[in-house]
Amino acid sequence: MLVLNADQTRDALPWVELIAALEDMFRSNCVVPMRHHHEMEVPGEAAAIMLLMPAWVPGDHIGVKILNLFPDNHVRALPTIIGSYLLSSGKTGEMLAMVEGGELTARRTAATSALAARYLAREDAEVMLMAGTGRLSLNLMQAHAVHRPLKRFLVWGRSAVKAGETVEQAKALGLAAEPVGDLAEAVHEADIISCATLSETPLIQGAWLKPGTHLDLVGAFKPSMRESDDEAVQRSSIFVDTRAGALKEGGDIVQPMEAGVLHEADIKAELADLVAGRHPGRTNRDEITLFKSVGAALEDLAGAVLAYQQAKSKGTA
Fold it and tell me: Taking the model in full, what pTM does it have?
């Protein structure tokens, strides 16, 4: 069985190929049971979460991700997300690979947002605001730059020090990044706004959004979390990675629905509808679009299969 560590997983998931693999998987007949989501008490710290995410394409591949999210791991200089993905043959059940789960999750999450932005962001988008300075921030900036001509990357974080560190890391990757302190001003300037935070209260105010903005909400993966306010939801055309996931876990969807601000029928489409051509995505230049991502097991399967194939082709196996 092939075992890929974090560096090998990253090298086996190039952005262009990963975005294409995700598009193919969203078009496929992948079977995705509801994931197991277990909150675990951590004495004296924020609660942790265990995720078990199975998926399979009949006769092709089977996979399951076991992921632990420990929000306070940063105080120990450890990643927030720790886990592994087990990939097996869909014909024999033979175990083919174990892929490092944190890197797989970060890259497939960013690539999913970039895939959605191909249908929802303006083709001439040049300025991206990254709200959040965690592991996903660099991945999201790189992924969004694959299919949009992004020239500037504005980075905002609650900690100016962390925002500065993220900017330096982005520059080392060849991205024209700069820190920003005024979130409202940065929102108004951006064409694409990507949020990857653990915020319990809205960060992005609808009143700040200019016409034509694409809002990519990746954090707030629990109903109690939220990155956008009611006005942002009301002004936007709403899209989700999967209805089942967003309606159950995405606070940016769940909370406005509970308040009566949003109704299920207001969700225009999920990502599978976009890639299959059942919905055109953005319909005009001034439309404000909102994509809420909570993650789906088929995304992990797509990434794990690609990582396995790439590693084999490079002789890692």
Answer: 0.93
Residues 6+ apart with CB under 8 A from 100: 4, 5, 6, 8, 9, 84, 85
The residue whose two tokens read 């886990």 is: 83
Enumerate the β-bridge partners of residue 128: 153, 192
Q: 112 lies in a domain?
A: no
Domain annotation covers residue 209: yes
d(CA 39, CA 73): 16
Predicted local confidence at residue 221, as pLDDT: 85
In a domain, 244, yes or no: yes
- CA 96, distance to chain mean position in Å, is 26
DSSP 89: E
Q: Are 109 and 118 in contact (CB under 8 A)?
A: no
Residue 270 burial (10 A CB sphere; 0-12, 13-18, 19+) = buried
CA atoms within 13 A on the CB side of 163: 19
